[in-house]
Amino acid sequence: MNGTFDANVIAELGWRQGAVLGPALFQAARDAAPPEIAEQLRETDWLIVTSHDCDIVNFKLEKEPTVELLRAVPRGRGKPDKQQTWGRNPRSLEFVVADASGQAQPSTPGAPPPDTTTILRCDVHQRWHLPRQHLADSNPRALLPDKERRLVAEWLAKRYIRAAFPGTFDGRWRGDGSRNLKRWSKLLSKHSQWIQGVYLRLSTLKELPEGEQYRCHLFVTAPRADRRSEEWVNAADAIQEEVLQFWSQFEPGIECVGVEVFGTDEITLADLEPYLRFDADWVSFADDTAMTPITADMTQ
Question: Fold for domain 167-277?
């Protein structure tokens, strides 16, 4: 490791969010890892830099002394576990990468990836920090493409910003042993090909005492393209009826005042502003795309 820190060297070597450490930095990463992670590390692991680009190349080491690493474990070829893809599960994530180049390969949801690919699995708890000056010693061995880089970043961020509801509200609808949570998941899975998201508005986010009622309203959104299908009208009616029936069973503790089903082109951000996402992290919906656009070029 060089004695003088030079952020320009880090930038020139190509380090950014989504860069993967090469063999030259493996030992340094292992030395910096907590013991419970260090003892599990293998040289075949992908150690992905998840810090923001600006933090990685910041000129002052004292401002950004470390970068965050995420361990990704290759688990062979085949199809990713659909319940672990696209950030649906807040604790684990799977996506496809190319064996040799490290460039993630786009694939059609549900279709097996090409034989040249492998599946990477990430555990949100297997993260730690590496002194940033180490990046000046070697270039990355691979860079995740923008889509996968954003996927990883959003998956990590979602752990801190996903919706949280009052415990008393959750207790009233989930039931003993969370039996109704399983029914809710089953209902969403049944209609997953038509659903992009479910959003719930609650009368209050306060913990209410017994005898005081929560009131809720739900929006169910469908991908715009699916509304052109001849089956859409019947599907929308079935979703509305079944979701309303599910949420009507919790009176008097919870009153469902309505369920509406819209295409994503029929609803605005202003409409959704008072609502919170309320699907299930482990249910894979029809539009398995990252939440943030890869580019925001308004000239295109």
Answer: Alpha-Beta Plaits (3.30.70)
